[in-house]
Request: fold
Amino acid sequence: MSPLRRGRLLGGALLVLLTGLAAVPYVPGRDLARFVWFDVCQRLAPRVRISGPVVIIDVDGKSLAHYGQWPWPRTLLARLIDRVAAADPAAIGIDIVMPEADRLSPQRLPELIPTIGGELAIRLAELPSNDAVLAQALRDRPMVLGVAGVSGTVEAAARTPGRAAPLRVVGGDPAPFLRRFDAMLRTLDEIDRTAVGHGLLNV
Reply:
């Protein structure tokens, strides 16, 4: 038998074997062999990652140990946004709601530290607030801010719903199965109006 014919027969037999293994629901050791083969392929020809569809920046324990307890001053969040925006992402989403002014803004420090007064208090009052610094960092960037649906609370009465996104319904009416909210709790208006979009954070 010629080497060519022998190779064809061997290839055909291997194809039949692999097809049979794939068709049988359970073969002992099949998953292990598949995982081993996948690892071999990754080592021989690893996938070259050009970009990632989504990158999550997590405020973890190491971050808190380095920068201090949460919530951080919004000037620090502004620096983080600047770093992220430098990578030219298609969009940047912030999944936290900031409905109140930053208590660590320079103008509010005399409230936290009563010994601050006189000329120092005047100079602090002249500085931009932390909210203004964050708003400037978000402006003219593809920012999406989070909103929280609320029902029957003081915040709900104070926050009017935002612009509804267009919907297209195919089939039956889904409204009876959807959770409804009286209003949305949004981030402070100075920051919120810089966003190009919003996302509901409720699960």
The CA atoms of residues 135 and 191 lie 5 Å apart. The radius of gyration is 28 Å. The chain has two domains: 3-44, 61-200.
